[in-house]
Amino acid sequence: MEALLDARDYALASSLTLAARRRLAGFAAGEQRSPSTGGGIEFAEYRPYAPGDEPRRIDWSLFLRWRKLMVKLAAEEKELTLAVLIDASRSMDYGSPGKLRYAKRLACILAGAALSGGNRASIAVMGASLVEALPPERGKLPFPELVKTVERIQPSAGSSPAACARQFSARYGGKCLALVLSDFLYPDWPAVVGSLGASGSDVLAVQILSPDELEPLPLGEALLQDSEDGDETPLHIDAPTAARYRDELAGFTGELRAACARKGMAWALASTERDPASLLKGELAGRSFIC
User: Which residues share a beta bridge with 78?
Assistant: First the structure.
């Protein structure tokens, strides 16, 4: 069986840095600085003085210069936790290369990046319920063991993405970076985005589609089968039909992207043929928690 990761993927994982874009409570104190502010000694930023602030935190040199009362904020040193949510619904078990396999590849690369930075990483599978394949682990976990754990993930017989998103919010809310890997091809995707956005976590949603889902070919007479329930639909796919499909898909992905943006979530669309480096170091670096 072909290995899930190649040498370039391992090198990519060691080259990536993760940093929170919002305040996170975290799971434990550590070495990674997040935008949380508190009693640390490292300077983070200024904000205007407000009644109740301790006078000793006022920067009097700035007051003498600008006649404005500004309070120094110190950065707490916090260990980051990356929670990876992998959609294992049957629709993800489709494509060449397969969507679930590509999701597992991205999961390993970014979880490996977290571990190599001395942070925590967890892997959770979205099926009938949210199942932790790997609880939050620190860098002591060998990368090959992480890969073996992810390789064992299989398509789920049941699928309840909205329930999984609610369970994630209750378990991890406000404490972590969250990477969601899914095709989002289910009717309740707005509820999923809503729960993830309300969780208080720093969320990156990567929508994974196969090449023929992104660019269908005129096949003539075809029988389409629903991956989730097995229902079959006969269809004549000619050039105009394929064009209408592309328009509908563009509308759907645009709506999903806009919904994520409204919730403060980063979003990207990825073909299973796309090189992970171009996605993670190219498109998403600086637009998400990936540096």
Answer: 29
Q: In 10 A of CB 173, how many CB atoms?
A: 17
DSSP secondary structure of 186-237? STTHHHHHHHHHHT-SEEEEEEEE-HHHHS----EEEEEE-TTT--EEEEEE
Instruction: Answer whether residue 234 shows pLDDT above 70.
Output: yes
What is the radius of gyration, based on Cα positions, of the chain? 22
> 84 is in which domain, residue-wise?
7-23+80-283
- As a dihedral over the C-alpha atoms of residue 283, residue 82, residue 158, residue 237, rounded to 10 degrees, the angle is 0
The number of distinct structural domains making up the chain is 2
Task: State how far the Cα of 21 lies from the Cα of 36, in Å rounded to an integer.
Answer: 10
- Does 149 lie in the same domain as 59? no
- Coil, strand, or helix at residue 96? coil
Instruction: Identify the pLDDT of residue 30.
Output: 46
CATH number of the domain where residue 145 is located: 3.40.50.410
What confidence tens digit (pLDDT) does each residue in 139-194 have?
A: 678 899 999 999 999 999 889 999 999 999 999 888 899 999 999 999 999 999 99
Record the tokens describing residue 104, joined without a space: 């597992």
Residue 148 carries which side chain, given as an amino acid letter? K
Both 258 and 189 in one domain: the answer is: yes
**Backbone torsion region of residue 275, taken as left when φ is above 0, otherwise alpha when ψ lies between -120 and 50, otherwise beta:** beta
The CA–CA distances, whole Å, from 206 to 92, 180, 188, 229 equal 13, 6, 17, 24
The whole-number pLDDT of residue 43 equals 56
